[in-house]
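**User:** I keep going back and forth on a fold encoding question. It is easy to fool oneself when nobody else works the same problem. Could you pick a protein and write out its sequence and tokenised fold? Could you put it straight underneath, so I can go through it closely?

**Assistant:**
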Amino acid sequence: MQEFGQFVSGNWELFLALAIILFLLARTWFGPSAVVMVLASEAVQLINHKNALVVDVRTEKEYQQGHVMNALHIPLGVLDDRIQELQAYKNDAVVLVCRSGARSAQAATKLKKQGFTNVHNIGGGMLAWERINLPTTTEVGKPPEPGKSEPEPEAESGAESESEKSKPDNAETK
């Protein structure tokens, strides 16, 4: 143990550098600007149940080859110039995607620093999305309306009235 103490005191610069690196890593993973990494299947849940906005930050060519349905295309290189387009979604679920998850992680960090509160990055990006056979499209879709964290309920298709719905199935008519 005494030898370890001598080693540390003789190489204090290295241990200081190690402490700084560990602090910065911890801050990245757990700090206020930490971004939630989600699996592609979890992203589907956010899209379907939380009406999440999907932002695709890949290049135009990559986007045109296939993307998540209704994804808003804002390449990472122009995100700073177009961030005002996303301001209405500041408190909504926002899911970012790129090819592998690296560019979208950068974009997610930028959004968090701009005050977005519910930002997610698809780990593995479109490669992960396609790996589990989730659908893609080449059509330009319509992103969800901002401020609606829950999808709108579907209209009842049956012709039952409210009184018929509340009547037990085995109720006798008199």
